[in-house]
Amino acid sequence: MIGTLLIVPIYKAPILKLIANKPFESRKLMTEKIHKTIEQAEQEGKYIRKVRSFVKREGRLTKNQERAINDHWQNMGLNHSDGVIDPQVLFANGNPVVLEIGFGMGKSLVEMAKAAPELNFIGIEVHKPGVGACISSAVEESVSNLKVYEHDAIEILADCIPDGTLSTVQLFFPDPWHKKKHHKRRIVSAEFVETIRQKLKVAGVFHMATDWENYAECMLEDMQSAPGYNNLSETSDYVPRPDSRPLTKFENRGQRLGHGVWDLQFAKKT
Predict the structure, then answer these.
(1) Of 24-33, 73-82, 173-182, which range is least confident?
(2) Is the pLDDT of residue 45 over 70?
(3) What are the distances in angstroms from CA 203 to CA 114, 166, 224, 244, 268?
(4) Would the pLDDT of 133 be above 80?
(5) Per residue in 155-202, pLDDT tens?
């Protein structure tokens, strides 16, 4: 799943603490210096994300996760610093590419990749233990059609994924930020939806799923308002869970308790 979402100013917490402990004039000079650095980066055409939609909580890596990253990153890992990718070169074939944003521990992503060797999969996750677990599972299952990023998905979309290259984008169970005052922190927004549309091929599908009804309603509203999409639902709202999306333990437990899950699929118009 996607990491916990949070809007954060452009300064990181340690920097804010450092600034706060300085005399007023020093604080003013440091703040001006940070602003100048950010402005310079923007002028150089670098993507500067002033609002982050997650809190990166670094849990401890298990030995198995750490070993998986160390031993297999060269073959399975992708780096934001490498810039724009060419999927055909990356996978050495022209198969359709599926991008999953926020794959959590990667169990479902590996399961999907194993079940569809005719597709190529790219996963993005900010939490290192999840990345390590995903790589470990992929190696154990002999999955070779999967690559992963350990980075912010918004920056990967902006800096690494070419327009018109994805057959599917998957966003499963992002943080719902259920308090109304936090709704602005949700990843799905008009800007995000337009970014996804640009990355999709014509007829490519944006597939979302959530177990929070209010978030599902907001997703539907954003998608119906967005230009350039067709709703694949026969009822003009939600679709049944497709077989291609594995049923997770969390989802299974929720269904036994009577909780709903809402899937949305929208295709990019020709």
Answers:
(1) 24-33
(2) no
(3) 24, 10, 16, 17, 5
(4) yes
(5) 999 999 999 999 999 999 998 977 888 888 899 999 999 999 999 999
Query: Is there a catalytic annotation at residue 175?
Result: yes
| Nearest by Cα to 205 from 109, 96, 105, 116 | 96
Catalytic residue of the set 71, 163, 175, 237: 175
Specify if 28 maps to a domain.
no
Q: Helix or strand or coil: residue 122?
A: strand
Give the number of domains in the chain. 1
CB 209 within 8 A of CB 245: yes
Round to whole Å and give the CA distance between 97 and 113: 11
What CATH code is carried by the domain that includes residue 248? 3.40.50.150
Residues with Cβ within 8 Å of 225's Cβ and at least 6 positions away in sequence, in order, are: 190
Domain that holds residue 167: 57-268
